[in-house]
Fold:
Amino acid sequence: MTKSEKANECFISGFNCAQAVFSSFCEELGFEREPGLKISSSFGGGMAHLNETCGAVTGALMAIGLKYGRTNAEDTGTKEKNYDIVNQFANNFINKFGSLKCTELIGYNLSTDEGLEKAREENRFRTHCPLFVKEAASITEDLLK
Structure:
C-alpha cells in the first residue's frame, strides 16, 4: 500500500488531514503511530480552524522533520537540507493546488462559524481534503526516498 493510499484510508476513517499524512510515515521512520496521531491532532483544518496552513501540509512537514530534522543546534547542514526538502514539498503542492493555506484550498474561512458551517454544508472536507491528503503523502513519499 502506498503512503497516499494509507493516508487516505486514515483520513476516511475519521482522523484529520494532518494525522492522516503524518501517521502514514511514522512507523517507517521509527516513531509509533499512536503518539504520531496525538502530536498531529491539533493541525487539522488549517491548524484547528485558525485559517492557517493546510493540515495535510503540516502533517507532511512533520514527516519530513522526523526524517531530516536536526538534533544538534550546530548542525546547520542538516537544517538547510531539511529546509530544502520542505521547500521542494511546498513548491510541488502549490504547483498542484495553488496554495498551502487551508482556507484558500477549501474555499471558506474556517476560522468563522459561518465559513466552517458552509464548508460542512457543502461537504468540502470530504470532496476536497482527500485530494490534498493523497497528494501531500505522495509528494512526501517521493521526497523521502
Observations:
- DSSP finds ten helices and no strands in the chain.
